[in-house]
Amino acid sequence: MNKYLTLADGTQWIGTAIGDCQLEAAGRIVFNTGMTGYQETLTDPSYLNQMIAFTYPLIGNYGIDPTVAQAPTIGAQAIIVHELATFNDHYTSRQSLASFLTIHHVAGIEGVDTRDLTIHIRQTGAQMAILSNHPITDFEAQLATFAPQVLTATPLPVATTTIRPRVAILNFGEKAAITAELQARGADVVVLPPTASLKAVAAYHPDGILLSNGPGDPTDYHTYLATIRQLAQRYPLAGICLGHQLIALAYGAQTYQLSFGHHGLNHPVQACADGRIIMTSQNHDYAVDPASIKGTPLIVTHTELNNGSIEGLRLPHQAVMSVQFHPEAHPGPQEAGQFFDDFLLTIQKEAVVNA
């Protein structure tokens, strides 16, 4: 059956329905330039209420491996591809991407020239879009019929180990690989809802706090900023992606919306201290405003070489650090994982100072 992709500016593409074929969807359309990693991308909670257009022309050729999913469900509202593979061939595959989309009730469209779509988004900016079963005649009226999705709150876990160091992750939409990377380095990890009170967090006796990635506009999370500052007074604090933006806001900086975001696996980032360049995985639509850093205690530690945007921050004389990119990758290059080593080393040093 035909599927219609309509952007807010009236531009339309017609293709073939995939996934849950009868389902219609709406969300902010973004493009992802990764040649691999479609499963990790689709299950990244940061894509909540977004529609992902994959620029690589063939998607689904190596199937679905349940061990690499970043969350139990698909975060994206819809998937847009040029061609969906009709079969998959990989020893870890347990089902096709088509079946995966259907089971998780995700709408999709194939047959779209996604590179043409990407060029359009780069020229006009990211915007709202509707994936429908019929041509759209009144975009705003149709858009109003779709309710935005919300993340399910993380329940308070039970801490069952005595392993140190213990890192408490405030889960704004965490990717599973963040927990895995910390555990691989010997840390115990407890994942807490971001609404957890200071008393609730302290009950787990953490040695450090990590603010996770997550979806949406960071300014919508203003109610958490005071708690973030309080946590930073008591524990070493790190932030990834949204967590990075929230640390910036908590200390007086501002954020802004990028015209079409960073969604890909090959973004070059340079460390300000030594000039070292790493290739990073990124997924964000907002960034910290460089002009707003002046007058705050924050110091920029990393910048993105394509557009000069801020990719890392720290507080001098305080154990607070953050990065805009995804050091856990999944998908993407692994060379940014040093961030986790640095954070755990900071926790160790703070423990010695406070002993």
Structure commentary:
By secondary structure, the chain is α/β, with parallel strands linked by helices. It has helices spanning 38-42, 97-103, 114-124, 139-143, 176-184, 198-202, 225-234, 242-250, 338-354, and strands at 2-7, 12-19, 25-32, 50-54, 58-59, 78-81, 83-84, 107-110, 128-132, 166-170, 188-192, 208-211, 237-240, 255-271, 277-288, 299-304, 310-315, 320-323. The strands form 3 sheets. A 9-stranded mixed sheet has the order 11-10-12-13-18-17-16-14-15, with helices on both faces. Strand 17 (310-315) and strand 18 form a beta hairpin. Helix 7 packs across helix 8. The longest helix is centred in the last third of the chain and has 17 residues, at 338-354. The chain starts with a strand and ends with a helix.
SSE layout and pairing:
Blueprint: E1 2-7, E2 12-19, E3 25-32, H1 38-42, E4 50-54, E5 58-59, E6 78-81, E7 83-84, H2 97-103, E8 107-110, H3 114-124, E9 128-132, H4 139-143, E10 166-170, H5 176-184, E11 188-192, H6 198-202, E12 208-211, H7 225-234, E13 237-240, H8 242-250, E14 255-271, E15 277-288, E16 299-304, E17 310-315, E18 320-323, H9 338-354
Parallel strand pairs: 3-4, 4-6, 5-7, 6-8, 10-11, 10-12, 12-13, 13-18
Antiparallel strand pairs: 1-2, 1-9, 2-8, 3-9, 14-15, 14-16, 16-17, 17-18
Helix pairs in contact: 7-8
What percent of residues adopt helix (DSSP H or I)?
10-25%
Q: On the 0-100 scale, what is the average pLDDT?
A: 95
Rg is 20 Å
Query: Biggest β-sheet: count, sense, barrel?
Result: 9 strands, mixed
Residue windows where pLDDT falls under 50 for at least 5 positions: none
Q: Could you give the order of the helices and strands?
A: EEEHEEEEHEHEHEHEHEHEHEEEEEH
Biggest sheet, spatial arrangement of strands: 11-10-12-13-18-17-16-14-15
How many separate helices? 9
Q: What is the beta-strand fraction?
A: 25-35%
Shape: globular
User: Span from first to last CA?
Assistant: 66 Å
Content-based structural category: alpha/beta
* Record field, number of beta strands: 18
